Task: inverse folding
């Protein structure tokens, strides 16, 4: 398991190679990379700055990886989230999940992203032509996370 | 009890502070909120009932009835928007 919060860019290929290195039991790796867009809510976005809560962030990410491991038989998980100022086209977040089969890899990757969106203490501030603005939380993100609740 | 209170994102900007130390006579997270709201201005506005914000105690999200303990690290922040 690898959980990192960093300002530097990451390399998806290198992270997947690191997961695979020296092992032959992995049958599937599903990955997600989130990118900074140049448009949000109808306004151009020149840049965004990601703030977080050092300490709680790492704890919250570890908790949601633990929860994924409790739900699915996973062989490895990598989560990397960037902070600081990012430009359109920059990568923001990477989640890669390894399992024996694709089912658990796809499901756990989506689960981790859905929970990260609603549980991990990160906040985005956008630079638009109208000035700076904090991104508001979306109800659709709460709905996405709620899908995974055990009824 | 003594509390360390952290503010993030929009709330940090509105309150003009990233953190403060507070001597607190209450018991719960709700008591602390009432004390902060009583400062008026941005405090009353941002922490009013119905406004969306979260509280964490020692880095875990809590409900308003959560008990606070001496030297707790309390954080108040808007709903998260990472990913």
Result:
């Amino acid at each position: 398991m690898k959980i990192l919060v960093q300002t530097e860019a990451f390399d998806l290929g290198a992270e997947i190679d690191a997961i695979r290195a020296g092992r032959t039991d992995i049958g599937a790796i599903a990955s997600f990379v989130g990118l900074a867009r140049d448009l949000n809510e109808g306004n151009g976005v020149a840049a965004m700055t990601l703030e977080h809560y050092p300490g709680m962030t790492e704890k919250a990410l570890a908790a949601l990886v633990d929860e994924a491991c409790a739900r699915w038989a996973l062989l490895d998980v990598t989560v990397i989230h960037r902070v600081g100022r990012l430009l359109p086209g920059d990568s923001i977040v990477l989640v890669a999940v390894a399992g024996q089969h694709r089912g658990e890899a796809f499901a756990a990757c989506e689960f981790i992203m859905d929970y990260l969106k609603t549980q991990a203490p990160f906040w985005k501030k956008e630079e638009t032509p109208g000035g700076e603005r904090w991104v508001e939380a979306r109800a659709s993100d709460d709905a996405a996370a709620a899908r995974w609740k055990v009824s | 009890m003594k509390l360390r209170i952290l503010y993030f994102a929009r709330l940090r900007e509105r309150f003009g502070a990233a953190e403060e130390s507070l001597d607190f006579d209450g018991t719960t997270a709700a008591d602390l909120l009432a004390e902060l709201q009583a400062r008026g201005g941005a405090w009353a506005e941002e922490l009013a009932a119905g406004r969306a914000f979260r509280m964490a105690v020692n880095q875990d999200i809590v409900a308003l009835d959560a008990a606070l303990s001496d030297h707790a690290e309390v954080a108040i922040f808007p709903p998260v928007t990472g990913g």
Helices of chain B lie at 9-15, 29-37, 41-46. Chain B has one domain: 2-77.
